[in-house]
Design goal:
This protein is of the alpha+beta class and 181 residues long. The protein is built from 8 helices and 4 strands; from the N terminus they run ααααααβαβββα. The chain has a 4-stranded mixed sheet with strand order 2-1-3-4, with helices on both faces.
């Protein structure tokens, strides 16, 4: 997969970033990409439809045109059409993720992937954001949340390769390890 990332994902993400920068649309295109990735995540049917090699490119373009008539920036819509034309639509998700990584770099933002038992409220998000800024020295923090009821309580925060496990399950596991030692 890493060779594919180097040969396909990186150049396409860089190209989209280049267009975004030259049109002062880096954040707007980032919002479009986030919406697109969310849609693909929540719609397995659309994902399968786009990935299906039997379906004609024109049919895929027609569906994309219908789904994103107004909401999507024309650059993003044309970019998706280009991926369809070149038979690269399968890589839309990793290209989108890579674009967002480039955008975070540009905006001096770090991504904090937070797993909790319940959805975080605004106060918790702000507090978490401030803690991550303190840890990393970043100017901004983008928080991506996942819900996992098996944590029992607390949170797990992943920033890059650093993982902070402040979950009850993690604490119980550490106590268990100490008792066995």
């Amino acid at each position: 997969m890493s060779a594919i990332v180097g040969e396909i994902v990186e150049p396409y993400a860089q190209a989209l970033m280049s267009v975004a920068k030259s049109n002062n649309l880096t954040n707007e295109i980032g919002d479009n990409i986030r919406a697109l990735l969310e849609l693909l995540e929540n719609s397995p049917d659309l994902k399968q439809f786009l990935a299906n090699p039997v379906i004609k490119r024109d049919d895929k373009k027609a569906v994309i045109g219908q789904v994103f008539r107004e909401e999507m920036n024309p650059f993003v819509r044309n970019f998706v059409m280009l991926l369809i034309d070149r038979g690269r639509i399968l890589f839309l998700e990793p290209i989108g993720q890579q674009y967002l990584a480039l955008l975070r770099q540009l905006n001096k933002t770090v991504l904090a992937e937070v797993t909790s038992t319940v959805e975080l409220n605004d106060g918790q998000r702000h507090s978490l954001s401030e803690k991550v800024k303190g840890m990393t020295g970043a100017e901004n923090v983008e928080i991506s949340t996942k819900i996992d009821p098996e944590l029992i309580g607390g949170v797990i925060i992943k920033v890059g390769s650093q993982v902070i496990d402040a979950s009850l399950r993690g604490q119980l596991r550490r106590i268990g390890i100490r008792l066995n030692a």
